[in-house]
Design a protein that fits this description.
Number of domains: 1
Strand order of the largest sheet: 2-1-3
Helix content: 25-40%
CATH topology: Rossmann fold
CATH superfamily: Response regulator
Order of helices and strands: EHEHHEHHH
Structural class: alpha/beta
Low-confidence stretches: none
Radius of gyration: 15 Å
Bound molecules: 4-nitrophenyl phosphate
CATH architecture: 3-Layer(aba) Sandwich
Number of strands: 3
Shape: globular
CATH class: Alpha Beta
Number of helices: 6
């Protein structure tokens, strides 16, 4: 997989921004899951993790109650407050991870430079479990299975993202 420039471990933390539409279901869940993986490796100081939405209508809200219920059952406490993605996020993050192709298109249209656009890597590029989905589907109008599916995809994707990025950052020969 082609990844953008990622700072080496000694250069400082790697900064990852998860992005969906409303920033109340998928991206705050992705943020919470990656945060938990990072913590379990005692690597909190090596990562900056945040999330945002391309739509600002839920700004200031906690994640959707249904997502919080399903995430809590798996041990994730989601306390992020929704915010809208801003073009300045391109300078504040190394990796910008859209959940679906509409989010990806939106982000691409806002990228100030080609180097910034290269920071956009869809979550599904990290998902290796068997699935018929090529995107993290919006659970907002779905039932419980929709939320469980999102968490399954995100747990798989975030584990691989953590492993891939950690291996890159520790590779002193690159
Ligand atoms: P999310 O889900 O993008 O995963 O946070 C949605 C939440 C709210 C809306 C759409 C999707 N909405 O249109 O309000």
């Amino acid at each position: 997989m082609k990844l953008p420039h990622i700072p080496a471990k000694e250069e400082g933390p790697v900064r990852v921004l998860m992005v969906c539409l409303g920033n109340i279901c998928r991206s705050p869940a992705a943020e919470g899951i990656l945060r938990s993986i990072v913590s379990s490796h005692n690597a909190d100081n090596d990562w900056v993790i945040d999330s945002a939405g391309t739509y600002g209508g839920h700004s200031g809200d906690l994640p959707d109650r249904r997502m919080r219920v399903h995430a809590t059952r798996r041990g994730y406490d989601l306390t992020h407050r929704a915010r809208r993605f801003t073009p300045s996020d391109f300078s504040d993050f190394d990796l910008i991870i859209p959940m679906d192709s509409a989010n990806e298109r939106n982000l691409r249209s806002m990228a100030p430079t080609l180097d910034d656009e290269a920071k956009i890597v869809p979550m599904m590029k990290f998902v290796r479990m068997a699935t018929r989905y090529d995107h993290v589907p919006d659970p907002y109008y779905e039932g419980a299975e929709g939320f469980e599916l999102v968490l399954d995809l995100l747990e798989d994707g975030c584990r691989n993202l953590y492993d891939d990025i950690t291996a890159m950052r520790n590779d002193t020969s690159r």
